[in-house]
User: What shape does this take?
Amino acid sequence: MLITATGRRRKSTVPVMRWLAPLSPALLIMLLFFAGPVLWSVYIAFTNKALTGVGAQHAKWVGFSNFVHLLSDPLFVHSLLLTVLFVLGSAVVGQNTLGFLIALLERGKSRFFVATLNTFIIGAWVMPEIVAGFTWYAYLYQGGVLDTWLSHIGLSQDWLYTAPMLAVIIANIWRGTAFSMLVYSAGLSDLPGELLEAAQVDGANQLSMLRRVIIPLMRRSIVTNLMLITLQTLGDFTLIFVMTAGGPGEASQTTPLYIYQQALQLYNISYGTAISLVLLLVGAAFSIVYMKMVKVQEEVA
Assistant: This one.
């Protein structure tokens, strides 16, 4: 019986090995270029590693000192609040809502209308982020296009100085709405036509159909889109850096910009890495909330 059990065990491992063998190069690359840097970053966060000086050559284990420090760091708390504001304003409310409305607007329209509208919307999305940042900088800075127009009615001002967070939120909505629009366009195209026709026969108006039929059927698409654009927006750096560089002062310094300042400008790479891990936990918290939303909606349905 022992030999038989061993033989069966060996036979059962053969299909597994055959399945893993073709994937071994990809798994090795993932371990080397993904898991390796992540584990190294976690380790650095618990040391006093720096880019220059004594900490660069002889880093010491400091435990949770970096995390204790960031909890009492008012600049970190300020940057985290700005990051949440940026995500809620530009992604959750802005891109998500506008993308859904555009997808509804295009439903049932002519191909020419849809193609023309999509050309402008998707064009902003595929534009390199640094180009989009400079475009909005040229549009909003004092002496720029918007300022020149508003100067004729006495409203001239530097929007990047007086309302920096509003400026970067609007710019990010403009650039990222295309993704939400494409997700919702695909979701709307998959809706069962017989349910929509039945709702129309029952006398449902457009608003009632949207609230009671379309949105419940698209709840998975909505939550998936929210999760993706939230995680993407949490790490936005280039657009804000090009437009305001986090200024004036720290008025638009979101957490990614604060990480850059601490790790690469002040050379305190261990503290910057600790902040990045906290930002990773914030993204995980958003994801858990969205997954709970799907679960609750399925239980209600």
Summary: The mean pLDDT is 85.
